[in-house]
Amino acid sequence: MPVIKDDKTLLIRCTCHGHVLEITYDDYWVKEGVEPDFNVSVWNQTPYPFSFSNRIKLIWDLIRGKNLSGDDVIIEKSDAQAIVNFLEKQLNKSKT
Ligand SMILES: [Zn+2]
User: What is the 60 CA–ligand 1 centroid distance (Å)?
Assistant: First the structure.
């Protein structure tokens, strides 16, 4: 079940309830001739997801030039359909 759905934004909660996937249709510059696009963000709702030692390890990985991996977002089938519907609606909007 989407958390929030409005005309241009869809928020989907991960099955772990710790993450939220946000998809925003951005047509702000369309009048200036810029093609609309989609902004995708992953929000971590867990207030302190890493212990102090984990944070030090992440800093050490960054110093050594490693890339940090992101968390997985697990989406239920009905939410996947909501994403498809949202994207189709926005893409059809941009065709007009
Ligand atoms: Zn999650």
Answer: 25
